[in-house]
Design a protein that fits this description.
Elements: E1 3-7, H1 12-24, E2 28-33, E3 40-41, H2 47-53, E4 59-62, H3 73-84, E5 89-91, H4 108-121, E6 127-128, E7 130-132, E8 135-136, E9 157-158, E10 163-167, E11 173-177, H5 179-191, E12 199-201, E13 205-208, H6 209-220, E14 225-229, H7 231-235, H8 254-273, H9 282-286, H10 295-303
Parallel strand pairs: 1-2, 1-4, 2-3, 4-5, 5-6, 7-12, 8-11, 10-14
Antiparallel strand pairs: 9-10, 11-13
Helix pairs in contact: 1-5, 2-3, 6-10
Family: Belongs to the NmrA-type oxidoreductase family. Isoflavone reductase subfamily.
Pfam family, one: NmrA
GO molecular function: oxidoreductase activity
């Protein structure tokens, strides 16, 4: 048993991971929150207070929302405090693609990754991993909710309306992993006795977009309407489609969401064409007995009998 601290524990992905850790009944868990919603209120601007809160902690899992930490100062302070408190392991707020190319809303992750490199080079070492599961498979079930906490979001492949937007000349390789599988792998990673890999790819399903569309047409019983966009148009910020995204993450305010939806779709398409969603499989290799939810089975079950 080890003592785990969850930073940003009121978030959706954090809640899924907490459920998996609680179900395992192996570890003591402390949840850090700005709001005092769950066990311990902390001030992320106060390193000394954070370090005191982290005394006796073995592993810190961060789920701090990037949009509320524009300079990543809260995560940097959390890293410094973890080192001061002799925390062994740290996982920053990642839980997505392998790179942030053309996704400015996630570019702040790069600053945290660079900071972790720097502190380890300076001798203040802390073991860390970047949990990267690709895109949540649950989003292909939109508008249906397939997880306890995760809010359904629509993507460039719209199963409900049997349509998709693809980049002309690019059959992007995507990684889709259910949020439950991510949570289960994180829980098992906490138990793992070996050294955590820095790049922590979690590959539930590695699949080209064309194959997803084939599955979609089969489980929906109707061809998808495909709209093709040019890479050069996307690079200029032009989205020449008849539809766009409609739902945004709950952490994004209504005013922000309106301006972000177009940018997010452009960014997902561009980053997909450039390989950002083709994540590695380090944790598949470390946990070879874990069985991931397969995309064919998941989509067939979700869309069975749906209009």
């Amino acid at each position: 048993m080890v003592h785990i601290a969850i930073a940003g524990g009121s978030g959706e992905v954090a809640s899924e991971v907490i459920d998996a850790l609680v179900a395992a009944k192996k570890h003591e868990i402390t949840i850090l929150s700005r709001r005092g919603l769950i066990w311990r209120t902390v001030n992320y601007d106060d390193k000394s207070e954070l370090a005191e809160a982290l005394q006796g902690i073995h592993t810190v899992l961060s789920f701090i929302q990037l949009m509320t930490d524009p300079n990543q100062q809260a995560q940097k302070n959390l890293i410094d405090a973890a080192i001061l408190a002799d925390v062994k392991r740290f996982a920053p707020s990642e839980y997505g693609s392998s790179t942030t190319v053309d996704m400015p809303w996630w570019a702040r992750k790069d600053a945290t990754q660079e900071y972790l490199k720097q502190v380890n080079e300076s001798g203040k070492t802390i073991e860390y991993t970047l949990f990267q599961p690709g895109m949540f498979l649950d989003y292909l079930a939109f508008p249906y909710k397939t997880a306890k906490h995760l809010t359904p979001l629509n993507t460039m492949i719209d199963f409900e309306n049997r349509r998709a937007v693809v980049v002309e000349g690019h059959d992007a390789i995507m990684t889709f992993t259910t949020v439950q599988d991510l949570a289960a792998v994180v829980a098992r990673a906490v138990d793992y006795d070996g050294k955590w890999p820095v790049i922590g790819g979690i590959s539930g399903n590695r699949i080209p977009v064309s194959r997803i569309l084939e599955i979609g047409e089969r489980v929906r019983g109707h061809p998808f309407v495909i709209e093709k966009v040019k890479l050069e148009d996307l690079e200029r910020g032009n989205l020449k489609t008849s539809w766009s995204l409609e739902t945004s993450h709950p952490s994004v305010s209504g005013e922000q969401a309106t301006s972000l939806l177009k940018a997010v779709l452009i960014g997902i398409l561009l980053s997909g064409a450039k390989g950002a969603w083709d994540v590695s499989d380090e944790y598949n290799q470390l946990l070879p007995d874990y069985k991931f939810t397969q995309i064919d089975d998941f989509l067939a079950e979700v869309w069975k009998g749906k209009p």
